[in-house]
Write the C-alpha cells for this entry.
Amino acid sequence: MINRSLQNSICAVSQNTLGNQKVGLVSGELVYLNEVTRRLMKAVRLIDTTDEVINELSRKIFDVVSEAENYSYEGTTAQGSLKNDKNPIEKRDQSPSEFFPYSPAVGPLNPIAPPLKVEVCNEGEYKEIRALGKLDGVYVGPPDLVQGGVIALLFDDIMGSVLVVNNCGAMTGTLEVRYEKPTPIAKELLWIGKIEKIEGRKIHVSAELWAEETRTAIAKGIFVKVEMLS
C-alpha cells in the first residue's frame, strides 16, 4: 500500500503542474491557451445536444481554428521546444514543464497532455519523478476507465523525464507495461518513475501507477543513450 496521502501529495521539490501550474520559463498566455483548448476537448468529447447546437458550435470553432492556423510553425518540432532548438538535458535542473513543455504527457504547451502535477524527488541514488492528478473523459477507454494506451504513453514520458533529471540523454529501446487492475477515470492517480540501474549505454527504468491504495499498472523499460540527446 502506498497512499500516505498519495506520497504526501508527492515531493515538494519542483513546481510543475498543468492547470494552476507555476511555469517560470513558459509563456503564461500560451499555457492559458492550452488550458482553454483542453477544456474544449473535454466539452466536445462529452457533448450531448441537438444537431442544431452542434452545427452552430462547429462554425464558431472553425473560425477560431482557421485564425490560429495562420500562426502555425511548419518546421521541425520536438517535445523539448517548438522549433527543436533546445536540448532538454540543458534544463535538467528544472521541472518537466520546462524541459518537456510540448510533451503529449506532461507538457503545459500541449493540449492533449492531461492536467498532472509532476515533480522531481531527491530520494536515493537517482532522482525520481512523481506525477499526481486525475484523468477525465477525454482519456476514457472501457466505461469510466482510463484507456490502456494512455497509461503506456504517460509511463513512457514520465520515465523519459526520469532520464533527463538524472542527466541521461536516451531514447526508448523497449517498454513493457503490465496492467494489474482497471485504472479509474476522475480519481486521484499517482505515477512513480525511477532508474533501477545503468549498464553502459543501457538505462533500466521502472514505473508504477497507483489509484489511492491500489496499484493498477507497472512498467519497465530499457532506454539507450544517444549522442543527439547528450
